[in-house]
Amino acid sequence: MMAMGILGVVLWISEPAEIVRLLIGGEVVVHLQRETFDEARGIEGTRVDNGALIDLRWDQMHRQDAERIRRSFGYLPDGDQLDPVMVEATKVVMTNGVEFLGILEEQAGTAVVLRQKTKTWQLPLAQVRRREEVWVDALDVYEGEEVYLEELAQGEPSSPLEHYNLALFCERLQLWPRVGEHLARCRELDSDFKSDDVSRKLLRAERLEAAGEDAEELGRVKRLARRNQFPQSLAAIEAFLEARGDSPLAAEFAVARDRIVKQRGEWLTGKVVANLFAHMERFAWRVAGDAELSLSAARKRMTAEATDYAIQAVATQTESTPEEVRSIWEDDQRFRGAPRIASYGAGTFTLGEQDALRGLTGEELDAAVAQGSGNANDEENDLASRVRRIIEERKRQAESKEVEKKDQGFRIQDVPPNRDEWWARTGKRERSHYLIAFWAEREPSVELVSVLTTPCVRCAGTGVLEGYVVEQGVVRSPCSRCKALRVDRKVRFQ
């Protein structure tokens, strides 16, 4: 008996370790004890780090980890919102823009044969622009029964768990008679196996089977939502509730509507964050390419119109209203995504000394240093250090009239080109980056994360250029690119 007990411990510890993320934070690595696995409650095992016993409920860990562990024991996710069965299909785009989605039956001679459920298309190869393989909901291209029979061909179920899992598979295909069939067989084999879940799902399957076309419509609107076709999905729900308000499934349609509204809100928030910046950048590119605009006019147009343009573009793209998009954009608590960077480049001097060094002088300078502006490990690349050296240098110059005379040109805009000349000779790409940085520092709903810098590429961050004249020797002059600022200003924003 003792030998068997020791062997049992060895087998327990040799189980593969699972990383489990806890909802309260942190994670543990656990060797699971298969003998005490409770599909309804949770897991037991030993911690890898200290060998301590641990007992975890499903509701104490991340849902993805709970599903992964349950799958390793043969149990599929069995909530009311099951993911669709996904299959590989073919999307064909014709030269006139029309798209076809289906299963590629054959490509023979001059045509592509595509099948979608009971429909078949023969598409002339000469009119096909492109063809690509995509993963789609199986019900978009197959009849549910066809998918079920293919799954059944992999092996007949024999245990309660296998019948239960096949019932879940049929739920995803909305084959309610099949769901009832396998759940009933599961109960026959073991009346105690997940008895509460089996009873609940049997009742639901019977109700949805009796609902007939109403159940099919419920599945259709959910599939529309899964494809992010929220306006169509919600419109179909409203139409159903108006026409069939007395349906036994009316309550389920109402619940589906609430879930889809929430799902759409989360989706739209992500789209606003991802796409508004992209549309703003397109607007900046358009303004930068307008040769008739001066620098002042371009900056004015960017600050006055870019945000409204981007909001309208996102609203059109997402089939929402500008008011919805603006509400998300102006929400201080919105998800902001990864920070972006834009540089004023050689145009930094056009901001004027105060704005070019804003956040890098006095108390703001100290705060910028504390936040790590520039490269704190490399003094030569640290804007804070450079600004201090500029200030100290000017103090020393003020003490010597001779030096002051030589330094009369070391002020912003004292040497060509001036701001309008710089703008006229600058390329479209650098102009657009400049406008994006200018917009980011002035748009109220943009969070400025930090100010970054890079040394002027012409003077290597010295602020001066040196040349040799035969009569005069080495001659120092202000850098015509940075105007002695020594750096290009960059902003990091989100």
| Span of the ends, CA to CA | 65 Å
- Overall structural class, as computed from helix and strand content, comes to alpha+beta
Strand residue content: 15-25%
> Helical percent range?
40-55%
How many helices?
A: 17
Instruction: Tell how many strands the DSSP assignment holds.
Output: 14
Give the biggest sheet.
5 strands, antiparallel
| Gyration radius over CA | 33 Å
- Assembly state of the chains shown: single chain
Main-sheet strand order equals 8-7-6-5-9
Report the uncertain regions. Answer: 1-14, 361-381, 398-411
Global shape: elongated
Question: What number is the mean pLDDT?
Answer: 84
Overview features:
single chain, 494 residues, SH3 type barrels, five-stranded antiparallel sheet
